[in-house]
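Continuing the series of single-chain predictions for the mutant panel. This is the parent chain; the variants come on the following pages.
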Amino acid sequence: MPLIILPGIIQLAMSPQNKVALLDSWFVNGRPEPILPIANTAVTRGPVTTSDLSSTRITVIGAGALGSFFAARLHRAGIATALVARGKRLDRLRKNGVQLEMDGIRCAENLPCAEHAIDLPAPHLAILAVKTGDLDEAAAQLLPFHSSSLGILTVQNGVMAPEEIARLLPGAQVLAGRVHGFFEHADNIVRHAGVPPSIAFGPLDGTTSTTADLLADCLTAAGIAYTRPSSIQVELWEKFVLASAIGGVGAALGMPVGRLRERSAHWEMLSEAMKEIASLASKKGIALPPDCVEKTLDFVAGFPAEATTSLQRDLTAGRPSEFDQLTGAVVRIADELGQAVPVHRRVIEMLAERGLI
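Parent structure:
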């Protein structure tokens, strides 16, 4: 039963020299804190069935911080795991393996690596650790393995990825996920820097899933904590409220997110952007907590002054970004629902005026 995991990373940085990959966490008062804890969740620990996992093959596509973490932990658990990478990263992986540092202890996991998934044994589970803009290419790599039993887990920023993957690989069993943890990737070493890694996942329709059960067994074997919330949609939209609003508003104003609170007009713009997203969720029948926007603003208020988002840095540098999956997606969803989102439209105008889109 093939399974695909697609990661989403919010990156915040205080300086270009201190680049970190942040999965739902940031330093608050000198220590890592989760952005939004999982509130509607019952922790589920499925029993590890050795006979099921002994023949399970996993392919991880994408060798950044998250892909390397999953590959190393699953491989160490005795599950046959291979990694798809490219360029210099592939060369270094073949030479040195995955260098993973946790709790001050560094280990190397030497596992099969290739440039293309087709060059590896057919996977039962596939983890696509790619950016949202690379979903088409990543899904295409798995087309030779596509079947009705194919399971897919998306964990990108935004809320569109699960539906996009369902379109690209019709008939697949799609799971949506949200990852928590704090990693940094530098000098070909992946370091866990805080917040115990965990993932919340589940089908968009809330039904039971054999794919979800299999994923739970693999994560348990690898010692990766997980939760199976009653509504994964709520988890995705809570993160969407944060990521789209701070990324778009910060980039539009050309100001670090951590300094938005210094001017009431900027803070009000951020607040209204979050309210627009929460309103879209409500119109789609997704019941976010009543205090979702308030708690999200409280969290952002604790950001370091010079903190910026990966969306802002990518737009400013002219690099591929998640604009279409965040700010752009808000406007598209609003158009589909016939709902006004004037703040997000103003953000887009300001980004265009600055020559960023």
